[in-house]
Amino acid sequence: MKILVPVKRVIDYNVKPRVKMDGTGVDLANVKMSMNPFDEIAVEEAIRLKEKGVATEIIAVSIGEQKAQETLRTALAMGADRAILVVSETEVEPLGVAKILAKIVAEEGPGMVILGKQAIDDDSNQVGQMLAALTGRPQGTFASKIEIDGDSIKVTREVDGGLETVSLKSPAIVTTDLRLNEPRYASLPNIMKAKSKPLAQKTPADYGVDVTPRLKTLKVAEPPKRSAGVKVADVDELVAKLKAMGVAA
Amino acid sequence: MKTLVWVEHEGGNVKDSTLSAITAAAKLGEVHLLVAGQDVGGVAAAAAKIAGVGKVHVADAAAYANALPENVAPLVVELMGHYDAFVAPATANGKNIAPRVAALLDVMQISEILSVESADTFTRPTYAGNAIATVQSSDAKKVITVRGTAFAKAEREGGSGSIEAVSGAGDAGLSSFVGAEISKSERPELTSAKIIVSGGRALQNSENFHTIIEPLADKLGAAVGASRAAVDAGYVPNDYQVGQTGKIVAPEIYVAVGISGAIQHLAGMKDSKTIIAINKDEEAPIFQVADYGLVADLFKAVPELTGKL
Ligand SMILES: Cc1cc2nc3c(=O)[nH]c(=O)nc-3n(C[C@H](O)[C@H](O)[C@H](O)COP(=O)(O)OP(=O)(O)OC[C@H]3O[C@@H](n4cnc5c(N)ncnc54)[C@H](O)[C@@H]3O)c2cc1C
Fold first, then answer.
1. Which end of chain B is less packed: N or C, by CB atoms within 10 Å?
2. Same structural domain, B54 and B91
3. Does the ipTM exceed 0.85?
4. Per-residue pLDDT for A248 more than 90?
5. How far apart are the first and last CA of chain B?
C-alpha cells in the first residue's frame, strides 16, 4: 500500500519564539526552520512500514511556501519516494490543509495517512482528525504503536490516563505522538540521492480548494512574564518557605 | 447564543475539565450538554445538576461507550442544527472529537482557548505558549476546545436541567475499542492537583522516582509529573508528561526536580502559582521562572527535604 505523509516547515524546536514588536505575529526572519518534529516521527514510521514490506511507496506532501521544498527534501532524504508541494505564500489554516489533503487522498488512494499530532507553531492539533472526517475514514490519534492486522490497523494511543488501543478499518488516518519511534538522520549519500527524487508543484486552485482563512488574527502578544524569584541557601530555608505557604506539617 | 458542550466522564463522574469548559461556554450564552456513553443515566443526572445548565442530551448506547470519534462526531453534528457553538475540553478525548466535528460542519476550530473576548473573538496560546493570539472567527457556527487551567470550574450543584434522550446513528462501523492500560494511583490527578512534584532526566531510572520523588509527593499530598525526557527514557508512564505536548497544569505549588526548563516543559507549568526548582546547575533555565530555587544535588536535597517536612 501507499502511505501519504504530510509534513510542515516550522520554527526549529530549539529556538525561543519572539513576538514581533508590532503584535502581528512571531518573528521568523533569520530564524532556523525545520520539519515539525511530530512529522519527522510520521516519516520515520512510514519508512519502517516500507522496510517491513507493508508499504510500497511513501509520498510526502507539504502545503506552504516555496521554502517548504527543503522540508520535503528532508523527507525524501530520510526515505520517502516522491513529494508534492502545494504552494501557498499565505498561511493555510488546518481546515484548508485537510481539504487539500482529502483531494490528494482521493487522487492517490493511500492505505494509510500518517501525520504529526500537532505542529509546534500553531499548536492546533486538528489536521489529522479533520482529514479523517472529510474522507470518512477512522482516526488513530496520538499513536505510540501501529500494528497492521489484516484489513485493520491497531493503534495504541497516548491518552490522559495512560494508553488505549483501538482497531481501525483500513484505510485509516493516524497521528503520531512522541513515543512512536525515534526518527533517523538522513545520511549524506541519501541527501544527495534525494535531490533527484520527483517533487511535483501544485497550488490549492489545482485541487479546487478555497483556502480563504476563517480566523482572523487580531493581535499576537507575549504571555504575562514570570520573573525569577529568589535562590534559597539550603533545604532548611526551603522548608521555611513551604511552611510559610501553609503546606508543611 | 446556544452552546452544546460535550461532557467527558469517567467512572460515572463528570470530569473537572468539563466543568471548566462549561464556564467558558456560559460566557457565550445558554449552555446545553451532551452526555454520550453506555449506562450513563447517572452521569446525565449529575450533569443536569451543574449550575447554569439548561438541557442535557443523553445518548446511551454501546457505540458511544469509549468516546470513539467516528461514532460521537456524527451524533454531535446531528444536534448542531439547534446550536451556534460546540465546546469541548482540550483533553485527549476532546482533542480527538472536536476537530472531526468541525470538519463535518465545515468550520475552522479554535483550539485551547484561554479567554472569551466576545461571541466571535477568543485568545489562544501558540508557539508553546510564547505567543498569545487573539483570533476572530467568521464561521457561522463555532467549534472550540477549552484549556482547563484558564477557566474556573462550574459548580457541580445548583442547576436543574431537563434530560432528553437522543439516539443518533450509533456505530459507524469504522473503529472499535480494544482495551486500555490506565495508570492506577492513589495520588491526586495531575490536572486537578493542588501540588505537583515533577522529576526529570536527572532521576536516572524509575527506581529513583519511587524512592526520591514519590515520598516527597506523598508528604505533600501531591501528584507526580515528569518531563518528556523522563517519560521517553521509561522512568514513568506517558500520562505523567507535563508540557506543550503533554498535560497543561497550574497547581498552587509546582516542584521541578532535576528538570532543566526547556520551553516545551515551561509551556505546561508556567502558570503555576508558586514554582520551586531543585537543580544542581545554577544556570538552568528553570530558575528563570522559579519563585524559590535551590541549587543542589537532588539525591541529597530531596530526601533531606522529605525528612524535614
Ligand atoms: C516536539 C517536541 C515536544 C516536546 N514536548 C515536551 C513536553 O511536553 N514536555 C517536556 O517536558 N518536554 C518536551 N519536549 C522536550 C524538551 O525539549 C526537553 O528535551 C525536555 O523537557 C528535557 O527534560 P529534562 O529537563 O528532564 O532533561 P534535561 O534537559 O537533560 O535536564 C536535566 C536537568 O537535571 C539537572 N541535574 C542533573 N543531575 C542532577 C542532580 N543530581 N541533582 C539536581 N539536578 C540535576 C541538570 O542540571 C539539568 O538541568 C519536547 C521536545 C520536542 C522536540
1. N
2. yes
3. yes
4. no
5. 51
